[in-house]
TrEMBL record:
InterPro entries linked to this entry: Beta-grasp_dom_sf (IPR012675), MoaE_sf (IPR036563), Mopterin_biosynth_MoaE (IPR003448), Mopterin_synth/thiamin_S_b (IPR016155), ThiS/MoaD-like (IPR003749)
Lineage: superkingdom: Bacteria
Organism: Candidatus Segetimicrobium genomatis
CDD domains: MoaE (cd00756), Ubl_MoaD (cd00754)
GO process annotations (BP): Mo-molybdopterin cofactor biosynthetic process
Protein name, per record: Molybdopterin converting factor
Length: 223
């Protein structure tokens, strides 16, 4: 059978392609895709194995059998429908508009709005950073952000959340991610905003490359 494989971030660079067709045996699963790709592109062997798999834009267990014409995405390690509490999701290469996020979560029932901004700093792990590059698996990233909003709505009733994340090249001082949360009280707004950014960093398929003088590396792709 043949499947289409989508590659992101460090995997895309190692293979030299963002999408390719792969012939597999009937019943093969996610790990077989990775093994076939490593055999075809030896540079992949220097990278960590996938932290997850997606089939047809849905996260799946790596043991799920693949079918003819499936689209399989290998998810490198990363540092549905209308959702209650979700006010806004934006993913793109334009500067984040903080006022837009604040307006999206404004609610006359809320007594507090917490705003978190993640900004590009000029150093990381002892190196001076010139700029960063972000890449997203946008369809799945949006779905994971919707899940975050749904969890927040369940834990902190009355909370509203807006999330914006940049892609592309960002220079020092620019905001890469913004999260706005309104809630009836400040403790809930702070807690929900912290939960959102911590979960986003763990589960949402957005990758970061650090570029410094004389080198570059995808964060999370170190062996």
């Amino acid at each position: 059978m043949k499947v289409t494989v989508r590659l992101f971030a460090s995997y895309r660079e190692a293979a030299g392609a963002s999408s390719l067709e792969l012939a597999l045996k009937d019943g093969d699963r996610g790990p077989a895709v990775w093994a076939a790709l490593v055999a075809r592109f030896p540079a992949l062997a220097r990278l960590p194995s996938p932290s997850g798999y997606a089939v047809n834009d849905e996260y799946v267990d790596g043991t799920r059998a693949l079918r003819e014409h499936d689209e399989v995405a290998l998810i490198p390690p990363v540092s549905g429908g209308a959702t209650a509490g979700l006010a806004l999701i934006e993913i793109g290469d334009q500067p984040i508009q903080v006022d837009r996020l604040l307006a999206a979560v404004a609610d006359p029932r809320a007594g507090a709005i917490a705003l978190f901004l993640g900004v590009v700093r000029d150093n990381a792990r002892g190196r001076r950073v010139d700029y960063l590059e972000y890449e997203a698996y946008e369809t799945l990233a949006r779905r994971e952000m919707e899940k975050i909003a749904g969890t927040i709505a369940g834990r902190w009733p009355g909370a509203r959340i807006a999330i914006a994340h940049r892609t592309g090249r960002l220079t020092v001082g620019e905001a890469s991610v913004a999260i706005g949360v309104s809630a009836p009280h400040r403790a809930e707004a702070f807690a929900a905003a912290r939960f959102a950014i911590d979960t986003l960093k763990q589960t949402v398929p957005i990758w970061k490359k650090e570029i410094w003088e004389g080198g570059e590396a995808w964060v999370g792709a170190e062996p």
